[in-house]
Amino acid sequence: MLCLTSRAAANRPQPVTETLPTKPPTIRDMITAELDGAVRALLGSQADAPSLVVERSKPGFSSDFQSPVAMQLAKVLRQAPRQIGAELEQWLSARQNARLESIEVSGPGFLGLRLSEEYLGELLKAALASDRLGIEPFAGNTVVIDYSSPNVAKRMHIGHIRSTVIGDAMRRMGSFLGHKVIADNHIGDWGTQFGQLIYAWRNWRDDGAFEEDPVGELERLYVKFHKEAAENQDLNALAREELRKLQAGDEDNLALWKMFRRSSQDAFDSIYERLGVCFDVTYGESHYNERLGPLVERLLEQRIAERSDGAVCVFFRNEAGEDEMTPFLIQKKDGAALYATTDLATVELRLEEFAAERMIYVTDHRQKLHFEQLFATAEKMGVEADFAHLGFGMMTLPEGAFSTRQGNVIRLDELLDEAERRARATQEQRLQERGEQWSEEELAELAATVGLGALKYADLSNNPQSNIVFSFDRMLSFDGNTAPYLQYTSARTFSLLRKAREQGHEPDGETFAGVSAADRDLLLHVVDLGRVIEIAFDEGKPSVLATWLYELATRYHSWYASCPVLRAERPELLASRLNLTLLCQRALVLGLDLLGIRAPERM
To answer: Which of 84, 197, 327, 540 could form a disulfide with 313 if both were Cys (CB 3.0 to 4.6 A apart)?
Structure first.
């Protein structure tokens, strides 16, 4: 399907294809470089410089950044940390770096550094002058991200939401940073179930039901086959014969398989369109069929794999010949391939077709062993790409796990409908309390923006490895770390700037008057966004960006309460605070968009 994006994404620059620079230095890089020079001057040839730590200063300190470097050097130099700090401060002050206003030693020996207001003004101006808030893309890698991966002839359900939204956030962040990202939806479209479906289709189909809900009818046929086969074992042999004919290229069976796949893909795409999720590649398991036999033979010839009781496995043995990990089964006794075989063929194709340097698999953590075996086998094959399994925890209900038998597995389309319905009901209540009326179009758009945003953020704001307890009430709340809270904050910035415009005031894009600590703190938080996105992508944790956004929203509300904007005492302060409001607005819109969430202009 074509990639469908929000307005924010449409305005966001697309991944850059020309030669990009290496990673641009951050504020912390600048401070670290200055500290490193001071440390090396102090140490001389006595010892290697320690690994420097630079962090934002805690509230209450006049400095912007702090480092425990003096305490790190105490044992090496056999001096008191405060004395070492004083010598470092003297060396740094003598350098007269215009970006540093002051250096001080505090507490047991922390070295505090305060940035100059002129430099802060430069940071603000550069951020507002850029479509990317001053975050320049760098020369990244070619990265394949494998996510979502539903099965043909089955409805997408709530269990697919985590892989889909985590993978999409990784795609967005990686592309923004400068990586060449290939999003791959490796759908399950081959195997035993298709012989069963073809038999069931020919014997029990309901054409009217299929026309109304194709995937629903295919799912019904799949369930019926298993129920009937439990009573009549002969059906399994008949289904295997249909599968054999399909794999041999029988025209009728192949036509049915293509229809099943096309109908399922249409259903998947309708979900992805609502979620704003897209892919570059949707090959499916069937795409690799012709590669499987030759791959197994090649691994046998290279002695990477070996026969064992008629099957073919890859063994992972130490020098003593002991198994260090469960063998990787890549061909059954009857010659049938498995997920393992297809995944190895997929690795080879990604190297050939995309020259992939990194491959990231977004699946639940229960597949951890499979991917450990896959990556170890790829290493035996001489594959030099980096591999990562972004394993995520389970999503459960307050009363326990989802269960097909208990009938509490929620269809994904129904889940999205319910999220929008609840978001709309909440907005209608808010409008009634305020005495406002919105058009049907506005209400429907906001319901989708808030409802689907809440659903995504409830997942993305958690560490992927954590289990999640699903709760509509919690995810749609306007209090706490939720999408509606962040979206409300964004809408508030739009409202404030509209009011300012009505009064004849506009942000000038360059004035910064850091009168209060809150001004400096808010600006420094925003200009740290590029570093945060990089950490979130490299660690495979969109939650890092979500946490940063929540901290930005809470900072903005606190700053707004202590630093009135439209009632600023003088024009310079008014301009500065309008600029900070615009900066926060654009950071919220960009950050939410990188998570696949839209930011409304009013709520």
So the answer is: 327
